Amino acid sequence: MTLLDERIWSLFKRHWRQTLTYWSAFFSFGLCIAFLGPTILDLRCQTQSTLQQITWVFFSQQFFLLVGTSLGGLCKKTLSSSLLALFSCTLIISLVFAVIPLCYHVLLLSVAMAIAGLAMGVIDTVANLQLVKLYQKDSAIFLQALHFFIGLGALVSPLVANPFLAEDSCVLGANWTANSSSSSPSDLEHLRSSLAGHGVAIGNISQYPLHIDGIVVTRVSYAFWIMALINLPVPAAVLALIYHERLLPCSDNSQRLIDRDSLSSTSPSPTGDSGQGHGSLFGCCNPAQLQGRPASFFILYAVGGAILFITDGIIGSYAGFVYTYAVSPPLLMGHKTAGYLDSSFWASITVGRLAFIYLSYRYTSPRLLTFSLVGVILVQCLLLIFYTSTVFLFIGTCILGLCISSVFPSMLAFTEDMLDYKGCATTVLVTSASTGEMMLQLLVGSVIHSQGSYAFLLCCTISSFIGFCLFLLLLYVQHSHRNCSTDSSQNTDMNMKEKPETGGS
């Protein structure tokens, strides 16, 4: 292995089963998060609902994903509980894929997507938390690889769905005329691209006539059943790991390999806390654990969460509205051409995470974060300057995806390192990122609706400046927190030296 030193490679060989399991679970996460946008019009036909009604499934998925990220920290006491949670959630995703074709009412579909969102949120927190716990100071490179698998799943999902999407109206009526029976294929393509960003721009596309009553002729069910089969090896892999590590209830508890391996591989923190801080979002607020902490300890949590709130919000907003911006004045790009922007953005994020797997080994997390956040600001400023250039919009979209791709895993590794790997930082950061992705899209969508499409670039640029300023604040607070920790350890050493003298007098 020429790219990695022997220590990193030996760590991976030691924990490869757990690591590959967490990576595969994130593939399942990505597979589930990307299918809804392309298939939403066919699902509207299946449920025979209006466009306004069907977009509630987006909110249902996003809201319960946020709930799941917070609840995922509850699986914290043992690795066995984490693996059982991963097995349940990945299996639930396959079951949801299989059940979606049977949901003939929009309420049932919303419930199915809420269950899937809850499972995705738990996967998000558990996989991040356990990888950090497993590798600690060497976790950055493995977190980059973990988040690469989200992009991989998000690329596979639309490819599976596309051959089964309706090219014309998927609801047919016997007494409609040829001119009124359906929207044109270009209109449907426009709708799909507009809805690909979680359906937040519904007000701008509601003028398209879409029939409800008639015969449903969609074939999208086959796409979901194929995705259910593609995802099925993931829970099977988790179950195989559970069986291999003798964590099943029928196994001999005295021979549980994974618990023994964890005890030998996880060193205690400088404060003597051997991972007991890993918990839910609310468990992190336990007064007994927070007593005596310096103010900088709490500020690190708040600022780290705020940075991911901003950056993941930028990702969600850009993916959600770049198509709307492209087809609006002054660019007036063709619907089909503009539809490639969102795909290019997610593809560049996936490629960027693949590249940062190696870069995170060569460079520290603060350096990577500085490079990424400065790059995001420069690209956003250039997009504002060349706002009439179609070519630069594509170039800027790809560069933006490359720059912003590593922020989440790098920030997670950096914050956990500053807080001595208590684990609570993972839950707080994952929950903050999910909140930002949902809330910032709603904010940017309302600004675009009232101020026009150019406000989209302006909002993203302002957000990127705020994110960089918060990162500078984080570096300053880190310096103060390190000094406080050093002074505290020196005082502890002095007290330990004085104790023998006091006891002898």
Descriptive account of the structure:
By secondary structure, the chain is mainly α. It has 2 domains: 15-167 and 182-260, MFS general substrate transporter like domains (Growth Hormone, Chain: A), CATH 1.20.1250; 286-490, Up-down Bundle (Growth Hormone, Chain: A). Helix content is 73%, strand content 1%. The chain contains 20 helices and 2 strands. The protein has a two-stranded antiparallel sheet with strand order 1-2. Helix 14 (295-327) runs antiparallel to helix 18. The relative contact order is 0.13. Residues 176-182, 199-207, 258-279 and 501-505 have low confidence and may be disordered.
What is the element layout, followed by pairings?
Layout: H1 6-14, H2 16-33, H3 36-47, H4 51-54, H5 56-71, H6 79-99, H7 106-135, H8 139-161, E1 171-172, H9 185-195, E2 215-216, H10 220-231, H11 233-244, H12 257-265, H13 287-290, H14 295-327, H15 335-362, H16 365-385, H17 390-404, H18 407-418, H19 424-451, H20 454-504
Helix pairs in contact: 2-6, 2-7, 2-8, 2-11, 3-9, 5-7, 5-19, 6-7, 6-10, 6-11, 7-8, 7-19, 8-15, 8-18, 9-15, 14-15, 14-18, 14-19, 14-20, 15-17, 16-17, 16-18, 16-20, 18-19, 19-20
